[in-house]
Predict the structure.
Amino acid sequence: MAGPTHDFLQPFERIQRLMDSEPGEQGGRRVILINDPADVQTVMHSPVIVRNETMRALAGDGLIFSDGDKWRERRRAMQPSFPPSDPERHAPEVEWAVAGLMSRLERIAGTGETFLLLEEMLRFTTRLIYRVAFGIELSVDHDKAPMLIRFFDSAGETSMAFIDSRSPLDINAMRQFQDARRDLDEEIESIIDHGRRSGVGADHVLGVLLGKSSEEPDFTEEDVRDEIRTLLLAGAETTSNVLTWLFLLLDAHPDERDVIEAELDEAATNDRLRSAILETMRLFPPVWFISRKAIGSVSVSGHDFEEGDWAFLCTYLVQRNPDYWERPNDFVPDRFAPGYELPHRYAWFPFGGGRHLCLGKALGELETFVAARRIMHSFRLVRADDDPLPPRIGLVLKPCHDVPMLVEERTRG
Ligand code: HEM
């Protein structure tokens, strides 16, 4: 049998085509495409370029899709649950969730069967966000992942119609999205019920949100629901995709995997693993685009934005821009060796930047690193099929279908 197809390493043409199109009309508005780090910096820090309404219609007006005073007030309320000054804040919960993931992989290794990489990683990240944000302990084998995947994928399909004028709105995709949204909304109701019944406190962000809704008439039940949806959306599928791409890249680059394994066995550092994670997020940023709109006139390196124009920042292409990166499409963890310097502050920005910098950055970094380290210490994850695997663009950048993997026990050197 031929070895696995590593076609996913090739630059993804659909994104390139999207970005190559001249600034033009999409859905009756002018969209300006941006793939230079200096322009990203200007847009991210401009007071007259703000979030647009692309996703609000699909996923509500939570922290991740809002801006202005509403956003500021929510960010102030939710930030203390994810303090940037204390990156280890959620270490006990991360250890707990990683232990669950490891017990499942041990069981699978014992049977010699395959498992689905994306679904397994999402099961892990979902279990963690439920515990951290909602104070809910899901079982190790919980089955929320397929429901979330249906929501993420159908929202992704639908959102492409807003982004890419060549992807007309598909009625079937819209229907699937409505069904998936109904299921997700039922799940959100049960999270709120659980929070009320258990009297969840302010050490979980759900407690903060419920407290706010009972004290402040302007903060409604709908606001609580929007924030729970935000946390599920932002907190689960992002990290699960980083882990997925990391294991696919290591499977495609056995030499790199050997270096990391040797370091885990022999050295007191995890530098190479850390570098591989940064490089994975460069090649496959889960949030592969960020869209904004101008609320006034502003010039961004030659583009004159007028009120109502949209900016489409393509993280995927910025992070592969050959003017800033050598061998931009290759997996080269060594470029992030300790002491590395970025070619530009915004040449690598998988967590965004400016005032909307990811709320869960420290949590996302910690869970990715701890899970990857523990898995690689005990096991080797190997692709079980050789199907082509081009990336799929939707809300996040992910493989076009889930990937069966084998778990091999590792003999340590
Ligand atoms: C590797 C994992 C992650 C990546 C790559 C990532 C990426 C991002 C990016 C690019 C943004 C900025 C979006 C924009 O500018 O419009 C963002 C915002 C956000 N992220 Fe993350 N994220 C990750 C993990 C998490 C986790 C674990 C949480 C859970 C708390 C989270 C919660 C949020 C929230 C609430 C925002 C909105 C922040 C605001 O607008 O003030 N993220 N994330």
